[in-house]
Amino acid sequence: MLNPNHNKVIYSGTGRRKTSVARVQIIPGSGKLIINGLPGESYLQFSPNYLRISCTPLNILGLDKDYDIYVRAEGGGLTGQADAIRLGLARALCSINPENRLMLKSEGLIRRDARIKERKKYGLRKARKAPQYSKR
């Protein structure tokens, strides 16, 4: 179990971005963010951009200090994980109150970003970068 508060109501959502997966659980509380057992600020390396991205759904709905967020994030880097947390949090907030969905959907927070790294092809240096052409 991700959180220590077993007697409270738990709302959960899963978010994915690139190769990152974030399982998000929210419970009524004081607004703290715990990612993989660490405070959210230290896990996201005190980056205001990553913290802002992660908590966007709560800020839009004005629920910043109403819920504690417990996250299990894996795979990818911090950018993918922050976006995965945002999607998981938005889905969890939709399970609390279906009316939240309209507001989050108008901001584009419900849609999963399906862009992933393109595979490398043989004969090329990267997915599309070809070796330099030599005429002779």
Question: How does this model look, in words?
Answer:
The protein has helices spanning 40-43, 48-54, 56-61, 78-96, 99-106, and strands spanning 11-17, 20-28, 33-35, 38-39, 67-74. It is an alpha+beta fold. The chain has a single domain, classed as Ribosomal Protein S5, domain 2. α2 (48-54) runs parallel beside α4 (78-96) and α4 (78-96) packs antiparallel against α5 (99-106). The protein is elongated. The chain starts with 10 loop residues before the first strand and ends in a 30-residue tail after the last helix.
In short:
With 136 residues, the chain is α+β, with helices and mostly antiparallel strands. The chain has 5 helices and 5 strands; from the N terminus they run ββββαααβαα. It has helices at 40-43, 48-54, 56-61, 78-96, 99-106; strands at residues 11-17, 20-28, 33-35, 38-39, 67-74.
- Rg measurement, Å: 18 Å
Q: How many separate domains?
A: 1
H/E element order:
EEEEHHHEHH
Q: Name the helicity range.
A: 25-40%
SS class: alpha+beta
pLDDT < 50 stretches:
none
**Within the largest sheet, what's the order of strands?**
1-2-5-3-4
From the N-terminal CA to the C-terminal CA, the straight-line distance is: 64 Å
Overall geometric form? elongated
Under CATH, the topology is which? Ribosomal Protein S5, domain 2
Tell me how many strands there are: 5
CATH class: Alpha Beta
Query: Strand portion, in percent?
Result: 15-25%
In terms of quaternary structure, the protein is single chain
State the CATH architecture. Answer: 2-Layer Sandwich
Biggest sheet record:
5 strands, mixed
Mean pLDDT: 92
Number of helices, counting only DSSP H or I runs of 4 residues or more: 5
GO biological process, one term: translation
GO molecular function: RNA binding; structural constituent of ribosome
Subcellular location: Plastid, Chloroplast
InterPro entries: Ribosomal_Su5_D2-typ_SF, Ribosomal_uS9, Ribosomal_uS9_bac/plastid, Ribosomal_uS9_CS, Ribsml_uS5_D2-typ_fold_subgr
